[in-house]
Amino acid sequence: MNIREELEKRSGNQCELCTATGNLNDLRLKPSLIDTLDTNILVCDTCKDQIENPEKMDANHWRCLNDSMWSEHKAVQITAWRMLHRLKAEGWPQDLIDMMYFEDTDLRFAEATGDHLSEDEKIIHRDSNGAILENGDTITLIKDLDVKGGGNFTAKRGTAVRNISLVHDNAEHIEGRVEGTHIVILTKFVKKANAPQQS
């Protein structure tokens, strides 16, 4: 059974957020890079469009979170938490947020997209040219970097680092693997692969 079939079975062929039954999509939660039942949900076109395009948010549509926030499934709970935070200015979502609880690892995952932050609080990672970096990007080192600790080698200029992770509380740090060693890299020493140079 593939992930879509598992999600259809889990949800009873309805949107896991608003219970709509038409035009359903398998949606992977950011920043996950793999499809599992803990990182994917089944959503309708309306929910998917507003999740992916915050400027289209219709607060009344998301009254459905009163129910879906209590789902037994982690991915549904996390999505509900993120959407409630986007709607905090409406007033009513704050009461629902206050009732939700996550273990530390799940809370860190929920916070990874920054939906709980106001615009001026959001941490944005940029490369040496000002291009915005995202989880899963490939970057290239623009200078030789001495790797201390377990590796104790020099990561050469021009080295490509694939599938990077953003350090969620520090805009100047990203993480990646070089020669099999997991390292923290300063964003000022990297260039996003295939990113247009900004003047």
From TrEMBL:
Keywords: Hydrolase. Residues 6-52 form the PhnA protein N-terminal proteobacterial domain. SMART domains: PhnA_Zn_Ribbon. InterPro entries: PhnaA_N_proteobac, YjdM_C. GO terms for molecular function: hydrolase activity. Gene3D superfamilies: SH3 Domains. It comes from the Bacteria. This is Phosphonoacetate hydrolase. It comes from Wenyingzhuangia marina.
